[in-house]
Design brief:
This protein is α+β, with helices and mostly antiparallel strands. The protein is built from five helices and five strands; from the N terminus they run ααβαββββαα. Helix 2 packs across helix 4 (130-136). The two termini are 27 Å apart.
């Protein structure tokens, strides 16, 4: 088709196809584009793999902490009000009950940060680390170039 248009331009003297050279930063090879695609797809697969959970044993999931109890304590709270008679702002102090954690002197266990327990099965889970995800994901395989492109790529590689 391109040859027919070129012959038509020669016969008529008119130009039908306009072209310009691409700037250097826009020129890509097939392999460079495939490498960029591989990097993008692999990163998506790793992010998906990091969302998966792994089973954790009890020893690694729990940490020992000091137990506390919540106790109601009297606390002074100061607020400010307008005295309508004098027009002055006056401090008003009142006693309020607030809950406070007080150490009980005993130790117990709690789940470490990032650990979740399935309430139905009692199984402990955590999300995969990036290192684990990079080992476990299926990397993208760059396909062979299309048959019509293989011969042109071989010629370019020789030049």
């Amino acid at each position: 088709m391109a040859a027919a248009v070129k012959d038509l331009e020669g016969v008529t003297g008119k130009q039908y196809v306009y072209s310009r050279p691409l700037p250097e930063e826009e020129v890509h090879g097939w392999y460079a584009d495939q490498q960029a695609t591989k990097a993008r797809i692999d990163e998506k697969r790793i992010k998906r793999e990091v969302q998966k959970e792994v089973v954790v044993n009890r020893k690694d999931a729990l940490e020992q902490v000091e137990l506390t109890t919540r106790v109601a304590v009297d606390a002074q709270e100061i607020s400010y009000d307008l005295d309508p008679a004098s027009g002055n702002i006056v401090a008003v102090s009142k006693t309020v009950k607030k809950m406070q954690n007080v150490a009980s002197g005993q130790t117990g266990y709690k789940l470490k940060a990032g650990i979740r327990m399935d309430k139905k099965t009692g199984t402990l889970y955590r999300r995969k680390t990036r290192e684990e995800a990079e080992q476990d994901f299926q990397p993208y395989a760059i396909p062979d170039p299309p048959a019509g492109m293989q011969s042109r790529l071989a010629v370019q590689a020789q030049q």
